[in-house]
Design goal:
two-stranded antiparallel sheet, 4 helices
């Protein structure tokens, strides 16, 4: 009887461990990328200083900011994120990374949803994906998935 109880506990522990594992297999490369990306200074100057990506996401999410150049915060953010992704991941056939998908998610309602379709950046694709997601404050989560084959 004791043996049956021990086997049951081991089985239960394995099942609980499997169910609590994340759907997205974590990548240190992707995590470091997101951590660095939000600190990149953008060409958008607001209130006499240049904003970083994290600040610009906040401005864009509220829709209230215009850069001193006259461009909206969102248009500068789009261009900056696209540039960072293209310079960071050389994705495609014959490369280690076959593709990527980057999404900004709004968590303000308790349900993750894309902030804006224009904030979804994808290139290439594959079957094996590793990635990371990071809460950057103001109820915004950034998520990146890297495709390897």
């Amino acid at each position: 009887m004791l043996l049956v109880a021990v086997i049951f506990l081991v089985f239960l522990g394995i099942m609980l461990h499997k169910s609590s594992s994340p759907l997205l297999q974590e990548s240190k490369e992707a995590d470091m990328f997101l951590t660095s990306m939000v600190e990149v200074t953008t060409p958008c100057q607001i209130s006499s200083y240049y904003t970083n990506v994290r600040e610009l996401i906040s401005y864009c999410n509220t829709g209230l900011a215009v850069c001193s150049s006259g461009q909206t915060a969102c248009s500068v953010l789009q261009g900056t994120i696209r540039l960072i992704l293209n310079q960071s991941f050389y994705a495609g056939p014959g490369k280690a990374i076959k593709g990527y998908e980057f999404i900004a998610l709004d968590n303000s309602t308790g349900i993750e949803r894309k902030i804006n379709e224009t904030w979804v950046f994808a290139h290439g694709g594959g079957t094996t994906k590793l990635g990371s997601q990071k809460d950057i404050g103001n109820k915004v989560t950034l998520k990146i998935e890297l495709y390897y084959d």
